[in-house]
Write a structure and sequence with these properties.
- The protein has nine helices and twelve strands.
- The chain is α/β, with parallel strands linked by helices.
- It has two domains: about 1-180, Rossmann fold (3-Layer(aba) Sandwich); about 195-275, Alpha-Beta Plaits (2-Layer Sandwich), CATH 3.30.70.1350.
- The strands form three sheets. A six-stranded mixed beta sheet has the order 4-3-2-5-1-6, sandwiched between helices.
- β3 (about 40-45) and β4 form a beta hairpin.
- It starts with 7 loop residues before the first strand and ends in a 10-residue tail after the last strand.
Length: about 280
């Protein structure tokens, strides 16, 4: 593939937890680079175009293996994307010179022409703050919008983060979206949410919804990408059943995803019966 030899390869290097992923898009933009390789992902601007995040691996050792693209399957996927998009330049993120050189070698890329170090971009105080957040809260940054990876990180405490900075007078502002996650290998440990929690959330929302008399039945099936929820409700007489069910379903999905950080794979709602009541007041907080 002749075009590989023409790709400018840069590297952004710094110890783990010092803010590389947080600053990746900014550094890439300053060097006219649209493509980033970070922790197993091949990213074009704000879009993941290939790979699987190493942060999904169960242990730190496994994350390093994924980040280095040690398996043939992982290498083929990234190399196929590079062939398809034919980038003029790529920036590789890594914790050491050896790591970024190894990634370039495994992917058949040209030798790295320039290495940018985190201490050239961030102050010592900023790096210490990043380390403290990593150690005390177990949070990691992925340099893409939350919607790009939400389905792959259900239950990982995933939050959006938007960065807006001015580049100076007469220059376009730097705006990027990132995602904050707490991966499974965090020393803080895994967490689980019992079925009863989901039921209590839905029961509370039913209590707050005038058209829904009560939750009659709920069944939860857990999948890696998020739970699937089936529920049966009693509807209050006088309300349009179809509209009421759709509105309640949307409300439940939104609140559960917000409160639990879980991505709802599927939600099904059925009207099991109708209750005649004088009036059900909506309880506003």
């Amino acid at each position: 593939m002749w075009f590989l030899n023409n790709i400018r390869v840069y590297a952004f290097v710094g110890p783990s937890g010092t803010g590389k992923s947080y600053r990746a898009q900014y550094v890439a933009g300053e060097n006219n680079i649209s493509y980033i390789i970070d922790d197993g992902l091949f990213i074009k601007e704000n879009e993941v175009i290939a790979g699987c995040s190493a942060k999904k691996a169960p242990t730190k050792i496994e994350t390093v293996k994924h980040a280095l693209f040690q398996t043939e399957e992982e290498r083929k996927e990234i190399m196929a994307a590079i062939k398809k998009y034919k980038p003029e330049a790529i920036m590789i993120l890594g914790t050491s010179d050896n790591m970024v050189h190894k990634i370039a070698e495994n992917l058949g890329l040209p030798k790295i022409s320039k290495i940018i170090r985190i201490n050239e971009i961030a102050t010592e105080e900023e790096m210490q703050t990043a380390r403290r957040i990593r150690v005390t809260e177990g949070k990691h940054v992925i340099p893409v919008p939350t919607f790009e990876i939400k389905k792959d990180f259900s239950g990982y405490i995933l939050d959006p983060l938007q960065i807006f900075k001015s580049k100076g007078l007469g220059k376009d502002p730097y705006v990027s979206e990132k995602s904050i996650i707490r991966p499974t290998f965090s020393y803080l440990g895994n967490f689980t949410i019992s079925d009863q929690v989901f039921r209590q959330i839905i029961e509370y929302l039913a209590y707050k919804t005038p058209a829904i008399f009560k939750l009659a039945k709920m069944r939860l099936t857990k999948y890696e990408e998020g739970p699937s929820i089936y529920m049966e409700v009693i509807v209050v007489y006088g309300y349009n059943i179809r509209e009421s069910l759709n509105e309640f379903k949307d409300k439940c999905k939104k609140e559960i995803e917000k409160l639990t950080a879980m991505n709802i794979r599927n939600m099904e709602i059925v009207a099991r019966g109708i209750e005649v009541v004088e009036k059900k007041e909506e309880n506003e907080e």
